[in-house]
Amino acid sequence: MNNIVALLAAQYFEQVDPPNLSLPDGPTLISPAIQNAIFSSMFNEDTASPLPPVSYQTRVLKIIIARIEESISDPEEDEILDSLLEKWTTLLSTPKSSALEQAQKLTYLKYTAPSPATTKVSSESTGRRTIITSENRSLILASGTTGFRTWEAALHLGTFLSTTSIGKSLVAGKRVIELGAGTGFLSFLCAKHLRADNTLVTDRDPTLLEQIDDCIGKNGLEKTRIRTGIWEWGLPLQVPSFAVEDEDVAKREPIEFDIALGADLIYDADIVPLLVSTIRNLFDNYSLKEFVISATVRNEDTFRTFLDTCGKFLSFTRVGSQ
Prior knowledge:
The protein has about 325 residues and is of the alpha/beta class. The chain is about 40% helix and about 10% strand.
């Protein structure tokens, strides 16, 4: 796929606001090959899935068609591909949800995980490393949770794990647990692309875990390698064991982890004691070796309270301080 179209498609499946998409210029869009690549990679249900909501597709295709029309200088030589026009007609005739319904509805987003700039061409780097989540990027808080969207801290941690040798070594071949997983973005990244041995995805909200369970299948993952479990911080961890051939052995095997991940967990001073208690529980009772947390520091005092409390029983390094 043309690099220009690949970038546009990656942003499109992440449902970037249409005015902010990296659209090719008009002369480039006139090319039949570019138009065909756009249709195949962004609007053809047979070759691109899961597609964004109809309303979003309509907004994006309207901009693309308008830009092509503005750049046509010779109608006999330049034209809009029939497949794009047919898709446009179909979208216009498809019933659309109300603005209120769209604001509350979850949709599938497809993220493209970054690769190291120094990565040589290989079977892993020639294809896009995608992750599918179920979320609503306009929802900040719903049903008492902020977990219905992937926040910037998770994306930054995903970039660190994907693009640095240190980050990749933290996960490859390791037993991973994610706390407060929300959409499960980080867990899917570890299980699908970073070669984690197994991954346990935890959150306190059953609805979020139902969405994650659905997306395990959407990402083509097996539940022998990635599982979900409810964990109310401060209470014992109660989750199913990973499948092994001997069920009796599974019951006797202790649950252990090598590394824990968390993103945007420190947003309220009231939850700091419960979070720290849970982290300490992991180190004391589950053989945890490392905990990596990514945070948007919204309140420096709250974050400092978290660091000071953790510092009483473990050593830590703060990366990216400003």
